[in-house]
Amino acid sequence: MHFDLEATDGHARAGTLTTAHSTIQTPVFMPVGTVGSVKSLDAHDMTDILDAKIILGNTYHLYLRPGDEVVHTMGGLHGFTQYDRSFLTDSGGFQAFSLSDISKADKDGITFKSHIDGSTHYFTPEKVLDIQGNLGSDIMMILDDLVALPATKERIALSIERTTQWAKRSILYHRANQAQGKAQEQNIFAIIQGGTDPEFRRISATQLCEMDFDGFAIGGLSVGEPNQAMYDTVELTTPLMPTHKPRYLMGVGTPEDLVENVKRGVDMFDCVMPTRNARNGTLFTSFGKLNIKAARFQTDELPIDPACDCFTCKRYSRSYLSHLYRARELTFFRLASLHNLHYYLGLMKQMRQAILVGKFEGFYREFYAKRA
């Protein structure tokens, strides 16, 4: 993997991230393909229609079904899904957090019960890298200890201690594998924890950024804290991260979140919001959100967004999409998801272009003006 930082405008950054499978211009949004599929879309949609250069797969879910060994046998994620560009896979730490009623962390890893059949499994820092090795992802996230907010200082301190120790084990294991000729085209990112406490964030960032990871993520945000607390935490954390390596903010978020955090120096994002909201009838536009369930759209001849040139907006009216949604027609999921992802990916391209020409502040003001 290679990362070139091409331009900065304030703290906002534009770069190019090159993996074995694609060249990714940053800032970038990664559509979420939890089980090896972005819901309602296929590899053709992702490459030929949306031109997405990287998507996210979920280690926990793919390990349970169909099993990482099955994916490996079928050619890794690239061969299995026929999406031949880059994959980032998460570590399973977030699932341990979100399924906390059926999981438990200790100093060596995380025990959890399958949400599918109740079977018990144990993730260690080494095991999650073995799983991701079988998946063949371009970027592997290491195991971290994520806590919900608000949390006690004691719990956050324990989270940092575990995350740092697991990071040390992960990088030693990964480099040893590479020395044996394994994981040659795979890269690992560490995940900075610390809640919204400035001192804890400094401790976690300092400890992790001293290690030779290929990139660094900011984790443990968008888990219950106010938006401004998230923005303040990112603003504090990005200057502590290496300038010559990619910076990834995990699980965030709304279009406003993307703009605010690009402004604060983040390069990479992922979130289920564009596809999940699409399936629920909420569509993102240049002027804000549109709820296709509203009665006024039943006879509306306009596209979702007259300023949008996506596959859906070039072909279909709000009226037709309103009908599909009300009829619970599966076609709606695809058309709405294509639109929302096109909007998200296009928003990142607009920010990148503004950074490259030194006009990000103007873009920032115009973005909010359109929503006024």
TrEMBL record:
Enzymatic class: transferase
EC number(s) from the headed UniProt entry: 2.4.2.29
InterPro entries: TGT, TGT-like_sf, tRNA_ribo_trans-like
Residue sites binding substrate per the record: 90-94, 144, 193, 220
tRNA-guanine(15) transglycosylase-like domain sequence ranges: 11-371
Region annotated RNA binding, chain positions: 251-257, 275-279
Keyword field: Glycosyltransferase, Metal-binding, Queuosine biosynthesis, Transferase, tRNA processing, Zinc
Active site positions: 90 (proton acceptor), 270 (nucleophile)
Annotated catalysed reactions: 7-aminomethyl-7-carbaguanine + guanosine(34) in tRNA = 7-aminomethyl-7-carbaguanosine(34) in tRNA + guanine
Cofactors (names): Zn(2+)
Cofactor annotation remark: Binds 1 zinc ion per subunit.
Pathway assigned to this chain's UniProt record: tRNA modification; tRNA-queuosine biosynthesis
Pfam family, one: TGT
Keyword tRNA processing tagged: yes
Chain positions recorded as Zn(2+) binding sites: 308, 310, 313, 339
GO molecular function: glycosyltransferase activity
PANTHER family to which the protein is assigned, alphabetical: QUEUINE TRNA-RIBOSYLTRANSFERASE CATALYTIC SUBUNIT 1
UniProt record similarity statement: Belongs to the queuine tRNA-ribosyltransferase family.
Subunit structure: Homodimer. Within each dimer, one monomer is responsible for RNA recognition and catalysis, while the other monomer binds to the replacement base PreQ1.
Protein function: Catalyzes the base-exchange of a guanine (G) residue with the queuine precursor 7-aminomethyl-7-deazaguanine (PreQ1) at position 34 (anticodon wobble position) in tRNAs with GU(N) anticodons (tRNA-Asp, -Asn, -His and -Tyr). Catalysis occurs through a double-displacement mechanism. The nucleophile active site attacks the C1' of nucleotide 34 to detach the guanine base from the RNA, forming a covalent enzyme-RNA intermediate. The proton acceptor active site deprotonates the incoming PreQ1, allowing a nucleophilic attack on the C1' of the ribose to form the product.
Protein name: Queuine tRNA-ribosyltransferase
